[in-house]
Amino acid sequence: MLAELINPYYLQVASFILINIILGVSIYITLSTGQLSLANAGFMGIGAYTSALLTLNFDLPIIVGIFAGTLLAGLFGILIGIPTLRLQGVYLAIVTLGFGEVIRVIFVNWESMTKGAVGLSGIPHMGREILNTLRGFGFDPKILGLQNNQFVFLAIFLILLVATISIITFFRRQNRSRVGRAFAAIKLDEKAAESMGINITYYKVLAFAQGALVAGFAGTLFAHVLAYISPADFAYHRAVEILIFAVFGGSEVIWGPVFGALFLTAMPEVLRFISEYRYMIYGLIIIIMMAVRPQGLIDVNILNWVKLKTSRRGQKHGTSSQKSM
Amino acid sequence: MRKQLKKFAQFTALSSLLVLSACGGNQAAGDEEGKSSGGAVKADIGVISYISGPGAAYGEAITNGLKLAQEEINGKGEVEINLVIEDSAGKQDQALTAAQKLMNSENVTGIIGPTLSTEMNVVGPEADLNGVPIMGTSTTAEGIPQIGDYVFRNSLPEALAIPAAIDKAIEKYDAKKVAILYGNDDVFTKSGFDTMKKAAEEKGLEILTTETFQKGQSDYNAQLTKIKGLKPDLILASALYNEGAVIMDQARKMGIDVPFVGGNGFNSPEVINIAGDAANGLIVATPWYGEKEDDKVKEFVSKYEKEYGKKPDQFAAQAYDALYIMAEALTNAGEADRDALRDALAEIKGFNGILGEFSFDEEGDVVMDPTVLVIEGGAFKEFN
Predict the structure, then answer these.
(1) In the structure, what pLDDT confidence band is assigned to residue B29 with cuts at 50, 70 and 90?
(2) Is B55 on the interface with A (CB under 8 A)?
(3) What are the residue ranges of helices labelled H in chain A?
(4) Which of B7, B18, B121 is nearest residue A228 as measured by Cβ atoms?
(5) Does the beta-carbon distance from A272 to B1 stay under 8 Å?
(6) Is the CB of B27 inside 8 Å of chain A's CB atoms?
């Protein structure tokens, strides 16, 4: 019964949605201090290549690769964050886009290490490794009534789901903390924030590093879910794609990029039945969105409205239950 | 505000409807496979192709070739093939989800595609693990059939095409010194270069210099000036046709008149359209030659032209042959079973299609003789 419901196709799509949500969150963090960074594709590439190379060349467990890749991307985030502090708006966007391209060109030209444009294949696959490890303990997916590949993709999906939920929870909590308030203050007015005693340098670099860390993490997951990466995966197309998640969904609240990533990743799959026309519809929807809601689909007003609706319902339940008492 | 909310609600309702309609209707397809009452083998063959995006022309040629072959094969009545075509948009993740859909939701017996070698690197291992035979019709990079037992291809790999072209060029021009020029940021041209270098070393050619360029570059004078000074007998260029044609044009203007040897990506009539007379002297090896004196080829070309209003290219021809190979394997297997199809595919030997005589080696790679072509007087001609 359960086995019939679990279709690797849906799980695969869901996995890509979750990875894209993490990427969407990564650009949201830098945007929440008012910095438009397009380096996230580059950070993603650093994470992916680090983890892939470590697991391929040194037979390290995937989890070590994921940690190393994430941390290295975060480190690069600090390194890039400090010198670009003085830049704002479009200038920052240009510099960070340039950084992403530099990273890609390094991957292309460092052939002894990265195999150049041909890319790295045979990267350990997260789900298959888990299956093999569990088999070592005498576990068989058949106990759960699952096929091998169903189990593989279910495992990936669950891991990604836990990771995504933890990341979103963390940043939601951070938003309500001292750090989040500082971010918001910097976004509204840097000078005013500084005069209120907020350490702008610290918080801006912090946001940049957090964004890089999260993007790097998404990159490592990408490498171990797809099992093949090439420099072309981290070109400016990817940077723009990530940006579109935030632009489409809205960058005011964290649910904006989350929804953007969810909708824009699921869209081409849902529209598969019209095959070659699906990207036309995709483009059309984005254009309509830009015209109707330039601030993105989800903003504070929408969230308040949703809250109002749900709380009203809650109140009704509340009163009725009181009566029954 | 209210109005916008209303719109938003309508939009959500519409999109959820779309989700529902897309989810339904997929489940029933796979059950009634196997033999139909008439004795013909009925099979669903999945196709993953590059139908939307910058490389959509490849996908169009491939699906056209497949549809033409499907019509003919189903007309004969021995096999009844149902094509389930999915788009990959040239992206690995899209190709993978398309493959998952075909393998798990549509329950196809075999898969043809995907279009690019990068996509095959992702899809191949998954299909192999699931035990679904998969055959690339345009994946020419190294190591594709070596992914696994279930992975095949009928596209002439660069490892066969480039050495064949170099051989003939050496024979004719008595070449000893070569210069190599390649695009280093593209999977296709980079792996073509690796093959060229290996072939040149094996044949004892002296490599004077190796120059690189990037995708979309428009000025090649620096590289060409250097090459001109070294006076090579041949220039080996691993380039896609858009860059390759510009390179030839600039080389001829500079006074470099030695022949060029190109890879599969250089092999396109577009080179002649872009470079004009400067394209003369380009030597390429190809599995497909549309002017061949062969009844099957002539019939295919005229049918294709009638149906789609243009001449078939190598992608259409390879896809056309691929479906015939699938059909023959299905006939031999006698049932629409994935494992039986894989075994039957591996057995294919001496298949006679429009590309010439074709066999799989033990790894599922291609065994065939490529045709070497040269551009002379503004047209591709057989090179002897």
Answers:
(1) very low
(2) no
(3) 2-5, 8-31, 40-58, 62-81, 89-109, 111-114, 126-136, 148-175, 178-188, 190-195, 200-226, 236-249, 255-270, 278-292, 300-324
(4) B121
(5) no
(6) no
Closest Cβ–Cβ partner in A9, A109, A271 for B105: A9
Residue with tokens 């032209």: B305
A11-56 pLDDT per residue, tens: 999 999 999 999 999 999 999 998 898 999 999 999 999 999 999 9
pLDDT of residue B295 exceeding 80, the answer is yes
Phi then psi dihedrals of residue B381, to 5 deg: -130, 155
pLDDT band of A229, cuts 50, 70, 90: very high
Tell me how far apart the alpha carbons of residues B116 and B121 are, in angstroms, rounded to a whole number: 9
How is residue B164 written in tokens?
């064949």
- Same domain assignment for residues A229 and A322: no
B122 with A228: Cβ contact below 8 A? yes
- In this structure, are A308 and A290 located in the same domain? no
The backbone torsions φ and ψ at residue B147, rounded to the nearest 5 degrees and listed phi first, read: -60, -40
**How many residues does this entry show for chain B?**
384
Please indicate, yes or no, whether residues A288 and A308 belong to a single structural domain of this protein: no
Chain B nearest-CA residue for A238: B91
Q: Where do the domains of chain B lie, and which CATH numbers do they carry?
A: 37-156+294-368 (3.40.50.2300), 159-286 (3.40.50.2300)
From the number of C-beta atoms within 10 Å of its C-beta (0-12, 13-18, 19+), residue B369 rates as middle
Interface residues on A facing B, Cβ-Cβ cutoff 8 A: 7-9, 12-13, 16, 105, 108-109, 116-119, 121, 125, 128, 148-149, 226-228, 230-233, 263, 266, 268-273, 275-276, 278-279, 292-293, 297, 301-302, 305
Closest CB from B4, B104, B184 relative to A108? B184
Mean per-residue pLDDT, B341-363 = 89
> Which residues constitute the domain of residue A61?
2-294
pLDDT tens readout for residues A106-123: 999 898 888 888 889 889
Cα of B265 vs its chain's centroid, Å = 10
User: A131 with A168, same domain?
Assistant: yes
What's the structural domain count of chain A? 2
Let me know whether A153 and A67 are in one domain.
yes
- A96 and A179 housed in the same domain: yes
Stated as kind and residue range, the H or E segment containing A120 is strand A120-121
Among A221-225, A306-310, B123-127, the minimum mean pLDDT is found in A306-310
Spatial distance between the Cα atoms of B14 and B267, rounded to a whole number of angstroms: 46
Say what the ipTM of the complex is: 0.81
The closest alpha carbon to B115, from B142, B80, B86, B72, belongs to B86
